[in-house]
Design a protein that fits this description.
Domain Alanine racemase N-terminal: 10-225
Protein name: Alanine/ornithine racemase family PLP-dependent enzyme
Largest sheet: 9 strands, parallel
Shape: elongated
GO molecular function: alanine racemase activity; pyridoxal phosphate binding
Cofactor: pyridoxal 5'-phosphate
Structural class: alpha/beta
Number of helices: 10
Bound molecules: pyridoxal-5'-phosphate
Order of helices and strands: EHEHEHEHEHEEHEHEHEHEEEEEEHE
Radius of gyration: 23 Å
Strand content: 15-25%
Keywords: Isomerase, Pyridoxal phosphate
Helix content: 25-40%
Amino acid sequence: MIVRYPCLEVDLKKVEENTRFIVDKCSEKGIKSFVVMKVYCGFKEIAEASLRGGAYGLADSRVQNLEKVKELDCPKLLLRIPMKSEAHDVVRLADISLNSEIETIMQLDEEARNQGTVHKIILMIDLGDLREGVWFQSIDTIVEDILKLKNIKLHGIGTNLTCYGGVMPDDENLGKLLEIKNEIEKKHNITLETVSGGNSSSLYKVLNDTMPEGVNMLRIGETIVLGRETAYGELVEGMHEDAFTLKGEIVELKKKPSVPIGTIGMDAFGNKPTFEDRGEIRRAIIAVGRQDVNPDGLDPLDEKIDILGASSDHLLMDVTNSSKEYRVGDIIEFKVDYGALLNVSTSEYVAKVFK
Ligand SMILES: *Cc1c(COP(=O)(O)O)cnc(C)c1O
C-alpha cells in the first residue's frame, strides 16, 4: 500500500482503551460519557473505536460530522448552540442538542413537528465562564416557554466551563447547577433526566472522587484523544498520550548556516524574523506547512530535533544533534497538541491512516 505524506496515523486500539478508561471511571459515579469527535472531524473509524470502548453516545459541534456517523447506533448530541438555519439537519441528525435561545428552540420544535419526532434539548446555563448559556440568574421565563412546546422535550440542563473564561469546575458552580435543576423541577413539577456537567476539564473531579452527586453526563473530547485532563493539563496515568501521530517526509537535507545572509526584511507572513547563531547546522525540510498545521503545536518524537520555523508548505528543522543519520525520504514523527490535531484532521492535504 502506498502511504501518502504527510499523514495522521491513528491507533484505534489506543482510542478504544482511552475511551474504556474514562467510561469506566465515569460510570462508577453514575455518569454517562458522550465522546466528543470534533477535534478529529468525526471520522467514523475513530468514533467506532470509542463505541467499542463503551461510549454511551457521540457528540460534535457540527452537523456535518454527525452526518458521518449517522449509521452508528447510539445517541447523538449536537454541542454548538444550533444556527436557526440548520434546524432541519439538527433534528434529522441529533437526538439531543445544547441550546440557549428560545427563538432557535421554537424553530427546532417546528422542524421536529414536520419530521414527526420529538427533539430533546439540554438548556445551557452560563455559570460564569461567559461562553454559551442562559445567565444563571435569569433562567425562569425560558423554561416556561420551552415547556409549552409540544415537539421539544426538556431533557435536562448543562454547563460548559474552562472554555472562554478559563473558569474551573468546582463544588460552587456545579453545586449551583444542581440547585437550578432542583428549582426547575419543583417550580414546574417535572423531572429533568440529565445534568451535563461539562467537558474534559470536569474529569479531575471524577478522578479524585469529588464530583457532586447528581451530575450524570459529561462530554469528553480531549482527554480521550490525548490522554490529558484539561483542568490542570496533567497526563492521566493509565491512558495513552500517543494515539495520534503526524508523519512528514524529508524533502531536503543540507548543511547550511543558521543565520540568513543578506538584509532581513519580512518573512512570508509579514513578520520580521530573528535568528540564533548556531554556526553551520544540518537543516531538514519536511513537506508539511502552515496550510496543514500551526508548527507551535508539533513536538518531534526524536527529542534531539529542533523546529526552526515554517512557511505555508515547508517545515524547517535542525537535525544536527540527532543520533540518527537522517536522509532525504526519511519520515519524521510528531506528537500533536489539541490545536495541531484540529489542524491536521481538517487539512485535506494530510492523509488519514488508521491502524
Ligand atoms: C468541545 C466541547 C466539549 C468537549 O471538550 P473537551 O475539552 O475536548 O473535552 C464539550 N462540550 C462542548 C459544548 C464543547 O463545545
